[in-house]
Write a structure and sequence with these properties.
The chain is built from six helices and nine strands, in the order ααααββαβββββββα. By secondary structure, it is an alpha+beta fold.
């Protein structure tokens, strides 16, 4: 769901994995950090991500740049929309951090389920008869039945840099056959990853 690059010390290895998944048919969309790594604008970024972007740009070769340049801002499959930021003007990189932003995303698409990145905290929004979407944080490992009578916006979270106080990598599974959705957290050697970030000369805050 975007922002494949721009934080960690293994951008090429990350892109190799994602490109292989894309070759197998996985939907992959572009994020604002990916655009920045290709030379896009940095004026809205703080100094820490800017430094990481400058470093990442130097690591990319023609193959990686071509792959990133070919990524769309959003992908629609059946009743699902994949997008990095809000479905409302994806190129504006709006953060979905509340009911009003979720409502704008719902209004911008007919998709029943919208999968969103950008925000590093996993969250679930759903429509209600009253109008404004409601929200709740998902519980890792607990399946959520996505009722056909509601529309859903799901912020998946971050594999590489979660910001909810839990250092475990965050990912999610959507079972289209059953209609269930489940978040997962996977502990890994975060200290080794942090050391690689520091050894690469990237900003300490990213470690």
């Amino acid at each position: 769901l975007g922002d494949l690059l721009g934080y960690g010390a293994d951008p090429l290895a990350c892109l190799d994995i994602v490109a292989e998944l894309a070759a197998q048919g996985a939907p992959v969309v572009c994020g604002n950090h990916d655009v920045a790594c290709l030379g896009g604008p940095l004026h809205e970024m703080s100094l820490t991500p800017r430094d990481a972007i400058y470093w990442t740009r130097k690591q990319l070769g023609p193959r990686e740049r071509d792959f990133l340049a070919g990524l769309p801002l959003s992908i629609t499959e059946a009743d699902r929309l994949y997008v990095h930021a809000s479905a409302d003007q994806p190129e504006a990189w709006t953060y979905v951090t509340g009911a009003s932003e979720a409502a704008a995303s719902f209004a911008a698409t007919s998709a029943r389920v919208v999968f969103v990145g950008h925000v590093h905290h996993p969250m679930v929004y759903f429509t209600t008869p009253e109008g404004m979407p409601r929200t709740f944080p998902p519980v890792p490992g607990v399946s959520i039945p996505l009722s056909d009578y509601r529309r859903w916006l799901i912020i998946v979270g971050a594999v590489g840099q979660p910001r909810d106080g839990n250092p475990a990598a965050c990912y999610a599974l959507h079972d289209d056959a059953s209609g269930a959705f489940t978040h997962f957290r996977v502990p890994y050697d975060a200290h080794a990853t942090a050391k690689k970030i520091l050894d690469a000369g990237l900003p300490e805050r990213l470690a």
